[in-house]
Design brief:
This protein has four helices and no strands. By secondary structure, it is mainly alpha-helical. The protein starts with a helix and ends in a 15-residue tail after the last helix.
Length: about 100
């Protein structure tokens, strides 16, 4: 259902920034990849220092809580490349052409 909603939102709002969240990755091993394929266009690595990450746990079993920021970014980059996407570190502005 969530992926269907992402797809519908992409069609309704073609210039919106729609995240494939860590929650998607928590409920399915390839959840973020599935979110991107469904129409999401944003993924965010866990960049908070390990010493404070527990303060940001909004749900149980959240993925990527034990990786250093650089490891998380590299892992996310590999995962996106596997499905044919490339990470960008540019601003997330999305403007109609």
């Amino acid at each position: 259902m969530t992926l269907f909603c992402i797809g519908i939102l992409r069609l309704m709002f073609p210039y919106a920034l729609l995240p494939a969240t860590t929650a998607l990755g928590t409920i399915h091993p390839e959840g973020r990849e599935m979110g991107i394929r469904a129409g999401a266009n944003v993924v965010m690595p866990s960049l908070s220092p390990l010493s404070v990450r527990k303060k940001y746990l909004l749900y149980d079993n959240k993925i990527c809580t034990g990786d250093e920021a650089a490891e998380c970014r590299q892992c996310l980059n590999r995962r996106m490349e596997r499905i044919g996407y490339e990470l960008s570190v540019d601003r997330g502005d999305c403007k109609p052409h």
